[in-house]
Predict the 3D structure of the following.
Amino acid sequence: GAVVSQHPSRVICKSGTSVKIECRSLDFQATTMFWYRQFPKQSLMLMATSNEGSKATYEQGVEKDKFLINHASLTLSTLTVTSAHPEDSSFYICPGALSLGLEGLDTIYFGEGSWLTVV
Amino acid sequence: DAKTTQPTSMDCAEGRAANLPCNHSTISGNEYVYWYRQIHSQGPQYIIHGLKNNETNEMASLIITEDRKSSTLILPHATLRDTAVYYCIVRVGGNKLVFGAGTILRVKS
């Protein structure tokens, strides 16, 4: 399957600081990337959808000024958590969509995600 | 995208087939059935997807009923490493993946 790499895999930051998470599709061009977060013992919740070169579309309840998403190229998307607080501590993951060229069909591939701890 | 219903948890003996059911009675004609799994503390792993016909790959088989209102993911010979949360998702190609609670599969020796 297609490979998505995320960096850093684990990060600890102080409350009030900002942290950036990078997501790269290594062997395919991801026209669309998604950002999810997952709190312990819960399912994955979609935060936003980003298409290369355009502004991200945020899900209801997700603060776009707090979670800055940049989809600079077909292989790179970044999430910056600004003014992080302990409640932002979570598992963040950014799958990329690989188009199969059949009536818009695509498959979404996940990397290993990033664990953020805000202290 | 249509909603899915899955059992909360299932147990399976190692070496036996694991059959994971999923109900999607409101599925529409252009929605595909996708299966992912998530092993503890890792990112979800794509397993298989299908539209109408049964599908098989190196990981699993997907059986979709003729009316498409339900499907079953089959892991033919479950191993301990197949213990994970399995998510059944229906979506139109190009749309986002919406995860439900999934089924916790426990493979026991």
User: Anything to note?
Assistant: The interface with chain A takes residues 30, 32, 34, 36, 38, 41-46, 49, 87, 92-94, 96-102 of chain B (CB under 8 Å).
